[in-house]
Amino acid sequence: MDSQGTQGGITVQRALELPGLRGGLPEVVAGAERLQRTVRWVHAGEVPNIASLLKGGELLLTTGLGLG
Predict the structure, then answer these.
(1) In this predicted structure, what is the pLDDT of residue 18?
(2) What mean pLDDT is predicted for residues 22-28?
(3) Per DSSP, what are the bridge partners of residue 42?
(4) Residue 3 in this model has a pLDDT that exceeds 60
(5) Euclidean distance between CA atoms 14 and 20, whole angstroms
(6) How far apart (Å, rounded) are the C-alpha atoms in residues 31 and 64?
(7) Which of 3, 24, 29, 47 has the lowest tally of Cβ within 10 angstroms?
């Protein structure tokens, strides 16, 4: 474990700072108060009911096209 109590995970904030993501000009539209949480899994999705498929701890990457 590291000093933050994680096992090598990455926070949402740190993921958004990675050049590959930063270059896409990501926009946080919900949960900005939780940017220090550790990402458990990364998903890409465009379906309207995506929330029902998530369990918590995921980082969802989307263009937003399927969200209405």
Answers:
(1) 94
(2) 90
(3) 59
(4) no
(5) 12
(6) 16
(7) 3
Cα 52 to Cα 16: distance, rounded to the nearest angstrom: 23
SS3 53: helix
Question: Across residues 35-58, what is the average pLDDT?
Answer: 88
Handedness of CA 25, 30, 32, 37 (dihedral sign): negative
Element (H, E) at 28: none
The values of phi and psi at residue 38, to 5°, are: -80, 135
Helix (H, G, I), strand (E, B) or coil at 59: strand
CA–CA separation, 10 vs 36, rounded Å?
Answer: 9
CB atoms within 10 A of CB 28: 12
Q: How confident is the model at residue 67 (pLDDT cuts 50, 70, 90)?
A: low
